[in-house]
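My main concern about presentation is that the manuscript never shows what a single data entry looks like. In essence, backbone conformation is discretised, so a fold becomes a row of integers matching the chain in length. An entry of this sort, consisting of the sequence and the corresponding backbone structure tokens, reads as follows:
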Amino acid sequence: MAHLLGAEALHVDFGTGPVLGSVSIGLDDGDRIGVVGANGAGKSSLLKALAGRLEPHGGRITIARGTRIGVLDQSDHVDTALTVAQAIVGDMDQHEWAADPRVRDIMSGLVPDLPADAIVGDLSGGQQRRVALAHVLVGDHDAVFLDEPTNHLDVEGVTWLAEHLKRRWSGNRGALLVVTHDRWFLDEVTTKTWEVHDGEVDMYEGGYAAYVLQRVERDRIANVTEQRRQNLMRKELAWLRRGAPARTSKPKFRIDAANALIADVPPIRDSVKLHRMAAARLGKDVVELVRVGVTYGDKEVIRDLDWNIGPGDRIGLLGENGAGKSTLLRLVTGEQKPTSGRVKTGITVRVAQLSQQLAELEEHADERVSAVVKQFSSITLSDGQEMTPGQLLERMGFTSAQLKTPVGRLSGGQRRRLQLLVVLLSEPNVLVLDEPTNDLDTDMLAALEDLLDAWPGTLIVVSHDRYLMERITDTQFAVVDGGLRHLPGGVDEYVELSRQRRAGGAGIGTFGRDDARAGSGAPRQDDAAATVRAALPAAAATPASSAPTLSGAERREVEKELKAVERRMAKLEELTEGTHNEMVMHDQSDFTGLAAFMKTLKAYEDETAQLEERWLELSERLG
């Protein structure tokens, strides 16, 4: 592999202490490197220095002759006088770039909603950022440096970008250096990780999941205390191995070592206990939408929607811009009244929303952090632990020195963390998070997720960060065509259905009335097959006319087996629920016993998956 560039004894200091101190690193053909670290640790400074956009205060950088580097950093802006096409492809004639499949793919992946002749100055900040990213990707570069490229991209856009970068270069050609807090994206496109901290750069093999494992091992080898070993990163690793099918089916690191490290880590979230505590705080009624419709002028955004949100539900909402996600959130929070239908809210419900604009902190801009939280009392988490405002501040990474800092002088990430704590300390029992990952680094995201795991209430999340979506929610819905569609397959199902729609397939349909009433998508014990029916994509539905003709005896046999499958699925559902309840009552320090429960639950899960496949086969035979 050819060496592209290197840094020797790189030093950067802006007068407040070294951001980078005597760092020596290199970049070769074939490298796919993700850069992680706390906000302010020096990730962007490292990228700019290596790209030649920042003059280091010491050391030297060498670049191989002829190496072409494409860079997108957070300060990049597009000439607002240009058209979208000019900003992306320069002076190339339309017939030239329109005939280039690579350019067409980039424009359809990043700016599908923008006319080529639109003026950049008329676009939103997010749209301009996407144009700048498209301009970098169109270029023929040996190395591409990207600083937070997933900002302003929705789930589909992030997925497209990951696929583009994976196929951009053939073999061990080209190099990628990307700074991002999007952990799914890191795991998808990177094969090495650089962690920037305390002026140093630590190097790890593998993407985010492998990096987490090695950090845990590093702590263990350093002979830290048992309490330190059972830190957030071990919990993060446990979820990576247990809760993300896309990763556990094709692990990128040593499975045996990972299993040994997480053998005594209990499940990240006790759903039964959370639902029980949430029900005690909320009662049975939370928020129910009954035949709700919303129109703006002649445009119908929500149509005849039924949705029942229950206590302790953890729901993720996906959908394109303009699909109606924000409208749906405003209906839930009570900020907006429906044009038709009604919204029923339980009498004990207290809704809080984490806004993107940090509105909760505006009135506290001149107050110190300590004064802001002093007005609140302690809160109780689902595990019975009582946490004071000071403990929560420490848990979310605030130092004693920062407690004396006026809110208006905090960094974006610090304000975001304080905003979340202020919202949680106000003790809502329904929490709405709208793009909560903005300005948070990977460690703070892990701390946020850990805190929400034990928060006893109903949670509704809108986010383009699919890692966070999969991590903190138990069920996902797509907002499409004025309604909701349950996504049993999660974000992967949403991406696939969106891809089918773009390709002219049946695409994403909407829930029928009975399915929409299922609320969070939890299976109903009186109809075990309802979940399977919801899981069947509209594009996969088989018309009755295409089903093979069965004789009367054959049909009776198929119907008999189908009913037997449904009865067994219902029984497994009851057994699973009972096992969860037993786990709640079991001694939580008995890890051997808890492991036995987990083994039983895994067996139930495997059998259910086999039965669902058989149910689909039998249903297709019946037409």
Residues 552-585 form the longest helix (34 residues). The radius of gyration is 26 Å. Residues 244-254, 506-547 have pLDDT under 50 and may be disordered.
